[in-house]
Amino acid sequence: MTAKRLRLLILGAAVLVAALGWGLVIMLKPAIQRTIVITAGADKGIYNSFALRYAPLLKREGITLDIRSSSGSVENYQRLKDPDSEYEVGFIQSGTTTPTENDRLQTIAAVSYEPIWVFYRGDAVITRLAQLNGKRISIGVPGSGLLKVARVLLGHSGINADNATLLEMDAYKAYQNLESGQLDAAFFIGRPDAVMQQTLLNSDLKLMSFAQADALVLKFPSLSKIIFPRASTSVANDLPQADVTLLAATALLVSKDTLHPALTYLLLEAANSAHAREDYFTPRGSFPNLNSDDFPISDESIRYFKSGRPFLQRYLPFWLASFVERRLLILLPFMALLFGLLQALPRMVEARMKNRLVVWYREIKSLEDEIWASKNPTKEQITQWRDDIESIDANASQIRIPQRYFQDVYALKQAIRVVRERIIQVAQQVEK
């Protein structure tokens, strides 16, 4: 191979490697997602507080959680099921939606109970929702999961717009109207340590204990029966003065099924850090869990609860693990091609070099066979053989190959010397 051809081959390989590198850069850019848009709830609501806990945990991994407020669970569901919306993750209250296969949503995890509180005023003790017949009742705001749950629970107890005044208002307004006497009862939802719940629990309003909780859970399986223990609000003041039976929905962390698997694992880690500790209703480690059938469970969640985060995400930075996991199937053919090229190039050069020598080996072999086949050669034949061997020697001396192949050139010259000596021997015999 001439030096020019070798340079062209090396240049071609360099261009191919550069093209592969550029392809990797193009593939790497979309693989690194730095922002997750989450649809939470009201600004001071339970879902917003969850999102605010997740944000700094995700920030450690270089991910920004873009928190968008909403009216609640129903609006979150509407946002997420729109394939063209920017929302990728959100909180949905169990039992408040009617999912379909076309929604393409998945549950990442159930993250917390959402206690449903019914506060009321008056002298009578209310333990059944049927006792709210004829009352003025706040049931939540449009777009919230509370509104749907309240309507269903009241409906099972025979309470509807025909025999009670059902009003739609937010938690703060409902509390004010209860205090001022414009409402008789109101539904609320939220953790006991939330600002609104603390305000209600420390007020003079009465908290309803659901005497029919077991039956209502049978009617509405998305709810759970929970106990708010005596003195949970204040041990010193013994508030409440008895265990209170509540109903609770479950907060679900839900995403579109197009969410990058690596981000799903990061959200699971954040949820585990935020919700794994014990609270008023569950021992440590009860949440997050996969005890939900509202939406299909994500494959990543199943693997996470079985064996934790994937190996690469445990030991590599998020962006690198994300790149490798997302692009591995694409990278493998390129890597195989590059590896094959790097291995084949030296062999191609070596084969090319040896092919240039093989031509003259064939000439020598052909000449040697002719010499051995000639029993009584003439002087003219011997002269022709001498010319042929000298021609081969001259051409062999002009072969331009790298220094590493010099031993092959000298092996060729040795073969030429052997045949030349054979010609000399034949010539001496003829002269005798």
Strand and helix layout:
Elements: H1 3-31, E1 35-39, H2 46-59, E2 64-68, H3 73-81, E3 89-93, E4 105-120, E5 136-138, H4 145-156, E6 165-167, H5 171-180, E7 185-189, H6 195-201, E8 206-207, H7 213-219, E9 224-228, E10 244-256, H8 261-275, H9 299-307, H10 311-315, H11 318-373, H12 379-397, H13 406-431
Parallel strand pairs: 1-2, 1-3, 5-6, 5-7
Antiparallel strand pairs: 3-10, 4-7, 4-8, 4-10, 9-10
Characterization of this structure:
- This protein is α/β, with parallel strands linked by helices and 432 residues long.
- Helices cover 50% and strands 14% of the residues.
- The protein folds into 2 domains: 278 residues, D-Maltodextrin-Binding Protein, domain 2 (3-Layer(aba) Sandwich); 79 residues.
- The chain is built from 13 helices and 10 strands.
- Strands 1, 2, 3, 4, 5, 6, 7, 8, 9 and 10 form a 10-stranded mixed sheet that branches.
- The longest helix has 56 residues.
- It is rod-shaped and about 145 Å long.
How many DSSP-defined strands? 10
Instruction: State the distance separating the first and last CA atoms.
Output: 46 Å
CATH homologous superfamily grouping of the largest domain? Periplasmic binding protein-like II
Series of secondary-structure elements, N-terminal to C-terminal: HEHEHEEEHEHEHEHEEHHHHHH
The tally of helices reads: 13
Which features would summarize this protein structure in a list?
D-Maltodextrin-Binding Protein, domain 2; 10-stranded mixed beta sheet; 13 helices; 2 domains; 432 residues
